[in-house]
């Protein structure tokens, strides 16, 4: 599976994909999406547009309370802000390929930890199972008061 950097031309389609999964990853405006891309440690997508991943790292100024939670607790990390896969492409290894790509980028930068959060309320069972299968462990839990969602923080050494 070919993975590449996200470009400006990709934004309309990726924003539509993101917002189609708003319950899991929260809806974004174009301005907010562009802001995340400007601050991203990694902004990667499949060449066919079926999935994308945005990540920040420990050096990125906090991009919200969830990223800030990790910056207060971990020295070096790559934080997965969101990974979104089109419904018709699920179960075909897209998310796994995006995570492997991020891990390779992080290892090249001497970052040995991937972190993220997954919704507990409302429960994102697919994402929770995905992360458990890949060896992520629980780092903590909180309520994200911006959206009224309970989240679980996860971590995985790479």
TrEMBL record:
Residues 1-158 form the N-acetyltransferase domain. CDD domains: NAT_SF. Keywords: Acyltransferase, Transferase. It comes from Roseococcus suduntuyensis. GO terms for molecular function: acyltransferase activity, transferring groups other than amino-acyl groups. InterPro entries: Acyl_CoA_acyltransferase, Bact_Acetyltransf, GNAT_dom, UCP028520. This is N-acetyltransferase domain-containing protein. Pfam families: Acetyltransf_1 (PF00583). Gene3D superfamilies: 3.40.630.30. PANTHER family: AMINOALKYLPHOSPHONATE N-ACETYLTRANSFERASE-RELATED (PTHR43877:SF2), AMINOALKYLPHOSPHONATE N-ACETYLTRANSFERASE-RELATED-RELATED (PTHR43877).
């Amino acid at each position: 599976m070919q993975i590449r950097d996200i470009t400006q031309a990709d934004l309309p389609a990726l924003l539509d994909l993101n917002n189609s999964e708003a319950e899991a990853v929260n809806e974004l405006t174009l301005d907010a999406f562009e802001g995340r891309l400007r601050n991203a440690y990694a902004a990667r997508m499949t060449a066919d547009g079926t999935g994308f991943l945005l990540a920040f790292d420990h050096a990125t100024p906090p991009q919200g309370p969830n990223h800030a939670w990790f910056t207060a607790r971990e020295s070096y990390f790559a934080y997965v802000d969101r990974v979104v896969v089109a419904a018709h492409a699920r179960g075909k290894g897209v998310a796994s390929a995006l995570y492997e790509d991020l891990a390779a980028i992080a290892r090249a930068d001497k970052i040995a930890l991937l972190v993220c959060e997954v919704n507990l309320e409302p429960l994102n069972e697919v994402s929770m199972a995905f992360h458990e299968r890949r060896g992520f462990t629980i780092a903590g839990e909180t309520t994200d008061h911006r959206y009224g969602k309970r989240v679980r923080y996860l971590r995985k050494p790479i």
